[in-house]
Amino acid sequence: MVLDLPFIWAAIIAFAVLAYVILDGFDLGVGILFPFFKEKHDRDVMMNSVAPVWDGNETWLVLGGGGLMAVFPLAYATILPALYMPLILMLLGLIFRGVAFEYRWRTRRGEFLWDIAFAGGSMVAAFTQGVALGALVQGIPAEDRAYAGGWWDWLTPFSIATGLALVIGYALLGATWLVMKTSGDLAARARGYALKAGVGTLAAMGVFSLWTPFLEPLYFERWFGWPTLIFSLLVPLLVLGCFTLLVHGLSTKHDSRPFLAALGLFVLGFAGIGISFYPYIVPASLTIWQAAAPDESLSFLLVGALVLVPVILAYTAYAYWVFRGKVDPEEGYH
After folding, report:
1. What does the longest C-alpha to C-alpha distance in the chain come to?
2. Where are the beta strands (DSSP E) in 2-157?
3. Other CB atoms within 10 Å distance of the CB of residue 38
4. Tens digits of per-residue pLDDT, 292-302?
5. Cα–Cα distance measured from residue 321 to residue 283, given in angstroms and rounded to the nearest whole number
6. Cβ contacts of 332 within 8 Å, gap of 6 or more
């Protein structure tokens, strides 16, 4: 049996991207919500809730980006020039946020500056990720195996809208994470923000479900052709089911159910993007087979992935198991 190595690698990278979005999404969401909690104690607890896991969450970003460069070099060489500005801003946001974790606890006089760095870095990273996604969904023109667009092609009403939508979605993940990990007044306020962000996320998913099919004929055929029409009819029902579970979990003060429901919304949205894209890795320009490296390289790299990915999964599961349960309000991050 001959393995379809480009397809296998596309699945691995898609999994890495999804893992990054749902894991780093909630700690970016905590940063996005930071300005809405004015008390120092609340901010300390919020930061402590993600401090043990945030850097491990970003492992998946490295795996996805590095894997794209090694396995689909033509796609990497096409996407990167098209998205230089949002990707550079994203990395700067992640850097400022990461440094804030260390320096915020070392100063009192300058603590407000690191609060701004943490919140601002989280917002910038989330927004630019959404902008990059929107630009990719719109399609990136390629000619003669190279990017054929301009410097500002990524900046459109659609990409700005997707950036704002992802900020709202990450805020939902962050709020439901705080519901699960904190207690008392902080958790109660997080429930209120989770409900508002949940309504905003549901509205955004509805808007983009109507908007996206008209960006490319490929998307229209996928959403309204057979047999993918089944998915188009099924997904809205699943989304409403997750939203109902979210609202019910918040109203009954369940700890983990709202977070799981929010993750469900993201998984469904990601699946919708995957169905729209396939078999393209750069929509309407390059398929996964056209962009893939030689099979010899894919085979060699797959051996490493079969070792590395389970190790990352095991480490991630262990970290979350060790730091399970509610955050102790009296403990600090050192």
Report:
1. 65
2. 142-143, 146-147
3. 8
4. 889 899 999 99
5. 39
6. 44, 48, 105
Could you tell me the sign of the dihedral formed by the alpha carbons of 299, 65, 54, 196, in that order?
negative
Q: Is 332 contained in some domain?
A: no
Identify which of 274, 282, 265 has the alpha carbon closest to the alpha carbon of residue 223: 274
331 within some domain = no
**Per the domain annotation, does 329 fall within a domain?**
no
Residue tagged 């230089």 (tokens): 84
pTM of the model: 0.91
Would you call 39 exposed, middle or buried from its count of C-beta atoms within 10 A (0-12, 13-18, 19+)? exposed
- How many domains, in total, are found in the chain? 1
328 belongs to a structural domain = no
- DSSP per-residue letters across 150-173: -TTTT-SHHHHHHHHHHHHHHHHH
Residue-wise pLDDT tens digits, 35-88: 999 888 888 888 888 888 888 888 888 888 888 888 998 888 888 888 989 999
**Which residue segment(s) compose the domain that 33 sits in?**
5-322
Q: What is the CB neighbour count within 10 angstroms for residue 277?
A: 21
Cα angle for residues 30, 34, 35 (degrees, 5° grid): 150
What amino acid occupies position 300?
F
Helix axis angle for 229-251 and 257-277, nearest 10°, is 160
